[in-house]
Write a structure and sequence with these properties.
- This protein is mainly alpha-helical.
- Helix content is about 75%, strand content about 0%.
- It folds into 2 domains: about 1-175, Orthogonal Bundle (Tetracycline Repressor, domain 2), CATH 1.10.357.140; about 190-304, no CATH class.
- Helix 2 (about 20-25) crosses helix 4.
- The termini are far apart.
- Residues about 1-10 have low confidence and may be disordered.
- This is Protoheme IX farnesyltransferase.
- Pathway: Porphyrin-containing compound metabolism; heme O biosynthesis; heme O from protoheme: step 1/1.
- GO terms for molecular function: protoheme IX farnesyltransferase activity.
- It is a multi-pass membrane protein.
C-alpha cells in the first residue's frame, strides 16, 4: 500500500469531514431498528410515562446505539478497510480520524447513559450502559475476531433495547421484556448469517471467523433453519403473556412460517440469491412483529 493508503487504514483523517460523516459513524440504519424496538418496549410496558420523558428515553437509546456503532467503527477500522461492504465508511476512507471517532463514541456513550439516569431512571440507564459495554467489549473486542459464535452471543447487545424501553416505564425488568429480548436474540443469527453467506469472501479476506467461513455454508444453512424453527414459539409468546393480541398471534405465525420457508430455500440453494432475499425479509419480519405489537396496544390498549 502507499503511505496515504496506510494512513487511511489506520484512521488518519483527510481534510473535509462533514456532519454527515459523523452521522454515518452512528450506523443510522442499524440505529433505526434499535430505536423502533426500544420504542416498542416503552409502548408495551404497563403503566404511564410522560411523553416528554418517553421521548428522552428513546433519544438516549438512539444515541447510545449510535455511540456503540462509532466505537465499533474505530476498533474495526483495519478490517473495514479490506472489506468491500465497509471500505467506504468514514474512517477507512479517511474522512474521519480514528481518534475523533473514538472520542465521539465515548462522549455520546457517557452522555446518553447519564441523561437516561437523570431524566428517566437508573435501571434503564444501567441497561443502556450494559448494552454499550456488551457491544463494545464483549462483541466487538472479545468475540467478533475470535469465534464463529460472535453473532450468537454478541446478538444480546441488539436485543436489549426493548428491555430498556420497558424499564424506562416500569423501573424494572419483567418476563414480557425478557421475551422481547429473546425474540431479537434468536432472530439475530439467521439474519446475520444470511448476510455472511453472500458476503463470505469479504469476511474471509478480513479474517473474521463468521460461521460460513469457519463451519462452511452447509452447516451455517442448517443452523439458520434451526433458529427459525425455535423462533416460531418465541415469537408467539408475547400473546401468551398479554402484551399482544390475536391479530399479532396470527400474523407472527404466518411471518414465522415465511421465515422458515426462506431458510429452507437457502438450505437448498446453489447460489446467493435466496440468502440475499432472506436477509432482506428478516429485517421486514422483525419490523412487522414489533409494529403489530405497537399497533395493537395503541388501538386496543390494555396492559401486561
Amino acid at each position: 500500500m502507499t503511505d496515504m493508503t496506510n494512513d487511511i487504514a489506520l484512521g488518519q483523517r483527510a481534510p473535509g469531514a462533514s456532519a454527515g460523516d459523523f452521522i454515518e459513524l452512528l450506523k443510522p440504519r442499524v440505529m433505526s431498528l434499535v430505536v423502533f424496538t426500544g420504542l416498542a418496549g416503552l409502548v408495551l410496558a404497563p403503566g404511564h410515562i410522560h411523553p416528554l420523558i418517553g421521548a428522552v428515553a428513546v433519544l438516549c437509546i438512539a444515541v447510545g446505539a449510535g455511540a456503540s456503532g462509532a466505537i465499533n467503527m474505530w476498533y474495526d477500522r483495519d478490517i473495514d478497510a479490506v472489506m468491500t461492504r465497509t471500505a467506504k465508511r468514514p474512517i477507512p476512507s479517511g474522512r474521519v480520524g480514528a481518534d475523533e471517532a473514538l472520542g465521539f463514541g465515548v462522549t455520546l456513550s457517557v452522555l446518553s447513559t447519564l441523561v437516561m439516569g437523570i431524566a428517566v431512571n437508573w435501571t434503564a440507564a444501567a441497561l443502556l450502559a450494559m448494552t454499550i459495554v456488551f457491544y463494545v467489549f464483549v462483541y466487538t473486542m472479545g468475540l467478533k475476531r475470535r469465534t464463529p459464535q460472535n453473532i450468537v452471543i454478541g446478538g444480546a447487545a441488539g436485543a436489549f433495547p426493548p428491555m430498556i424501553g420497558w424499564a424506562a416505564v416500569t423501573g424494572g425488568v419483567e418476563l414480557p421484556s425478557i421475551l422481547l429480548f429473546g425474540l431479537i436474540f434468536l432472530w439475530t443469527p439467521p439474519h446475520f448469517w444470511a448476510l455472511a453467506l453472500f458476503r463470505n469472501a469479504d469476511y474471509t479476506r478480513a479474517g473474521v471467523p463468521m460461521m460460513p467461513v469457519v463451519a462452511g455454508p452447509e452447516s451455517t444453512k442448517r443452523q439458520m433453519l434451526l433458529y427459525t424453527l425455535v423462533l416460531l414459539p418465541v415469537a408467539a409468546a408475547p400473546y401468551f403473556v398479554g402484551i399482544a393480541g390475536p391479530v399479532y398471534l396470527a400474523a407472527s405465525s404466518l411471518l414465522g412460517l415465511m421465515f422458515v420457508g426462506c431458510a429452507v430455500r437457502v438450505l437448498r440453494a446453489t447460489d446467493d440469491g435466496p440468502a440475499k432475499k432472506m436477509f432482506a425479509f428478516s429485517i421486514l419480519y422483525l419490523f412487522l412483529l414489533f409494529a403489530l405489537m405497537i399497533g395493537e396496544r395503541l388501538v386496543v390498549g390494555g396492559g401486561a
